[in-house]
Amino acid sequence: MRRGITIGLISALVLGCTPVPRSPSEEMVFIPAGTFLMGSEEGREDERPVREVYLAGFYIDRYEVTNAEYAEFLNALGGHVGRCDGHDCADTKDEDPDSHILYDYKAGRYVVEKGYEDHPVVKVSWYGAKAYCEHYGKRLPTEEEWEKAARGTDGRRYPWGEEFDAQRLNSDYRIGDTTPVGSFPQGVSPYGVYDMAGNVWEWVADWYHPYPSSEFQCPFFGRKYKVVRGGSWNHPGYDARCASRDIAHPDRRLLVVGFRCAASLLP
68-100: b or e for each residue (b if 16 or more CB lie within 10 Å)? Predict the structure, then answer.
């Protein structure tokens, strides 16, 4: 790892450009090009219709972004208020007791509440998630990319198969809080991506809208909500289905919403 970073820095100097900062969690999973089944005829109206979707190959983070990673991003940014496309990036514990990121005034940097370093970051806006991904040369996944990474190509209900299994995810308030990322290896997706069901909902790039050829009359269409995917620790297992969709305003910083990044090419 250290050798790879050194080579990258040397190459950047030779080319006369500034190297792209590397994410603390560099491990990404490649999702190969091809078609997959998206949507569900058995779920909510806004999941219909089931259809075959083709995607080019892409990369996605194996794990949700953690509090420790996001705190380092804030330190690199030099703050968070108004730094994410003119919006607040996230809440800190000084602003909201549900956040696990604090500002250490003595040290002059952001730190994480002890015991929550490897938990997924929450209380982060869509703009804050987008800014994090872009800082490391990545982006938020599209809705289609997220669903393919979660369910593979066969249209399964959950990342592991057809049947709900409470031992494979953090949902239903069974634990009562977030858990460290990667805590449920038995719930991994067909591509080896963790926590695509439960733990925290995840921001994706898309504005909420009905699917093409859907007959669903969307009550929120045009109201500028973003899509979140995957369910959370205090939502029912039904919400953790791969096809399940929910919405949140991009300015909101919610206790149950985090994110992971994607990329068309490795950053």
Answer: bbbbbbbeebeebeebbeebbbbbbbebeeebb
pTM across the whole model: 0.89
Model confidence over 35-51: pLDDT tens digits? 999 999 999 999 999 99
Residue 82 domain flag: no
CA distance 171 to 90: 23
39 Cβ contact list (under 8 Å, min separation 6):
47, 48, 49, 50, 51, 211, 243
Find the CATH number of the domain harbouring 232.
3.90.1580.10
Separation CA 156–CA 168 (nearest Å) = 15
Number of domains present in the structure of the chain = 1
Residue 191 lies in a domain: yes
pLDDT at position 115: 98
Give, for 34, the enclosing helix (H) or strand (E).
strand 34-38
DSSP 170: B
Asked whether residue 239 is assigned to any structural domain, the reply reads: yes
